[in-house]
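Question:
When you can, review this sequence-structure pair and walk me through the tokens.
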Amino acid sequence: PKTDIVFLKVHKSASSTVMNILFRFGETHNLTFAFPTGGGNQLFYPQRFMARFVQGFSPKSPRRFNILCHHMRFLQPEVQKVVSRSAIYFSILRNPVQLMESSFAYYKGTSAFSRARSLEEFLNQPYRYYNPTDSDSHYARNLMTFDFGFNPDGVVSAKRVQLMLKAIEASFDLLLISEYFDESMVLLKETLCWDLDSIVSFPLNIRDGSTKSPLSNSIVEKIKDWNRLDWEIYTHFNRTFWERIDRDIGRERMRWEVKALRERQAELARTCLQGMGSVAPKDIKDSSLRPLQHGNAKILGYNLRQGLDNETELMCRRLVTPELQYSSALYKKQFAQKPP
């Protein structure tokens, strides 16, 4: 199994679920994480990543960390200072239409979105609300482009798009697609030589359907236009994702692998969860398992079944622990000698 990993955690793209998979694998295999100095859950985002943002990094003794997975704005020369040269780099993308709808709910408090009454109102006159010089403007336009380290307000030319796609391809071994999450996990398992249980997960940081708004065709087109760079990234890597499946796994075996993954997930849901599925924040009985609520989104969580034996309880708890709580627990474990 590969143990040196860089995950670029792109916002609102099922990346908290992926992070839980990395946290569990790292914890069970006693790996080291590149934590932000002083803990926390972002590597000084939205600044471009610097090696000195990592707790325990020193240019004099370049210590290598196994897993780098907290939110950052990608800058590869700096990333290379904290991980081994053989590290596998991967990220996950999401359709920019759903990404924008999700961001509008989740980041409602940001300067670009706070005054617009609806996503439609924002898109009808974006420059009435959006100022590229605002420090939080990146949440409102080409968010994936920004996370990969590029200029989200760049002119969309064929040449720029090609350079951007080539740069991403040169840096990353694997780009997953959140709309095909199970297929993505199978591809990740193959790339990392992991076993099935290492990539099993329950969806984390997901929104209650009641806060989602349906989008008309005209809004969809406006979102694509407004996020043209993201759209180019997404359509390109959605295509190469399926090309890779055809080349490395084949559709027939992929169907079989996805079926095995879903069966294992259902089995774990029966073992671990009260009522089999996610619940509203107010219904989560164990406050340590309650996810952070943000903007206008209502983030769901889980209740564990009662009466599990210790070993099963620990496994189940890891599967449903929200990102911030899990990150904080791992930080305390890794830097036990330092008071947090």
